[in-house]
């Protein structure tokens, strides 16, 4: 074997070794939300979604559900970075659109629930014959943004306190790793659940969550007192309440969350992971069911007629 071939093979080995990092942990929550949603789409909505997806998605919505995170720091899309979250005033465990939905310089509607409203309107405009929406939107991007932001608004710390940037400035340890509270909720709890319960198999984790979704859960998740196509404010209200009750609770700066506490000859698992994983599971399931309900509404042929 020549030197060139050896280099080529080594290159491939390194590339394959890096693949799991490229498709890394940060994507798992969004992937799970969109995979769960796919199962609840009507045939009509699924066809409309597939028609809008970019070619690289190969017909799979879940494959592009982290697109909005991948582009958020690129110069061309930097405007979108404030659309992933909303902040409440410190220690206020409720969400108020007028008070909380703005960007860092106070421009209204630039937050996660404002973005959900906006991209829903853009996708609905396709069915509108009134001519009011003469602007032509990029509906592929609208679908990818909307699917991502429905996931984000269900992550409790994406509706957290302003002073600690939704837990980003609270340094903690997750087992032995130094990280921050926001990252624990974005990635680490899911990562630990995958290792602890599913032998690192994301598909198995998603199937397990799906098998726990009952008709009653779907009814409750999709039951809304909503007069327009989407009402995301209650999702944000749920999130800040869960952030107060579960995410911030016992998460003082510098604390070790996860791991084992050894007292004398006994080991005790810190209960943060075991008590919070069911919350994360439920939020992934709710996000998935609600995303499907919304896409079914948007792409229902008769929706705009029924609303008139
Ligand atoms: Zn995001």
From TrEMBL:
Transmembrane segments: 7-26
GO biological process: DNA catabolic process
InterPro entries with a match to the protein in the record: PLipase_C/P1_nuclease_dom_sf, S1/P1nuclease
Keywords (A to Z) from UniProt: Disulfide bond, Endonuclease, Glycoprotein, Hydrolase, Membrane, Metal-binding, Nuclease, Signal, Transmembrane, Transmembrane helix
Zinc-finger as UniProt keyword: no
GO molecular function terms attached to this record: metal ion binding; nucleic acid binding; RNA endonuclease activity; single-stranded DNA endodeoxyribonuclease activity
Pfam families registered for this protein in UniProt: S1-P1_nuclease
Top-level division of the source organism's lineage: Eukaryota
Reactions it catalyzes: Endonucleolytic cleavage to 5'-phosphomononucleotide and 5'-phosphooligonucleotide end-products
Top-tier EC class: hydrolase
UniProt entry tagged with the keyword Membrane: yes
The enzyme's E.C. designation: 3.1.30.1
SUPFAM superfamilies: Phospholipase C/P1 nuclease
Subunit structure: Monomer.
Family of the protein in this entry: Belongs to the nuclease type I family.
Protein's name in the database: Aspergillus nuclease S1
Phylogenetic lineage: Eukaryota, Viridiplantae, Streptophyta, Embryophyta, Tracheophyta
């Amino acid at each position: 074997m020549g030197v060139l071939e050896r280099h080529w093979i080594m290159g491939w080995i390194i590339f394959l070794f890096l693949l799991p990092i490229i498709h890394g942990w940060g994507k798992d929550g969004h992937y799970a939300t969109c995979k769960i949603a796919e199962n609840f789409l009507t045939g009509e909505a699924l066809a409309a979604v597939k028609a809008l997806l970019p070619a690289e998605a190969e017909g799979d919505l879940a494959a592009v559900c982290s697109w909005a995170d991948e582009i958020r720091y690129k110069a061309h899309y930097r405007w979108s970075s404030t659309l992933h979250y909303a902040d409440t005033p410190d220690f206020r465990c409720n969400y108020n659109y007028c008070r909380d939905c703005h960007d860092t310089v106070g421009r209204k509607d630039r937050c996660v629930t404002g973005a959900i409203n906006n991209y829903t309107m853009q996708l609905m405009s396709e069915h509108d014959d009134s001519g009011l929406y003469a602007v032509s939107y990029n509906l592929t991007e609208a679908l990818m943004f909307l699917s991502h932001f429905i996931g984000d608004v269900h992550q409790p710390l994406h509706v957290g306190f302003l002073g600690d940037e939704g837990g980003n400035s609270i340094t903690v340890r997750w087992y032995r790793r130094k990280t921050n509270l926001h990252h624990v909720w974005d990635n680490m709890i899911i990562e630990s659940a995958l290792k602890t319960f599913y032998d690192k198999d994301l598909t198995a984790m998603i199937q397990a969550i799906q098998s726990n979704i009952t008709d009653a859960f779907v009814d409750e998740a999709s039951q809304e007192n909503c007069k327009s196509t989407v009402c995301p404010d209650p999702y944000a209200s749920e999130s800040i309440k869960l952030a107060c009750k579960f995410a911030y609770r016992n998460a003082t700066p510098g604390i070790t969350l996860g791991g084992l506490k050894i007292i004398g000859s006994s080991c005790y698992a810190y209960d943060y992971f075991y008590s919070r994983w069911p919350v994360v599971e439920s939020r992934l399931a709710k996000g998935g069911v609600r995303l499907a309900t919304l896409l079914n509404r948007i792409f229902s042929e008769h929706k705009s007629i029924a609303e008139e």
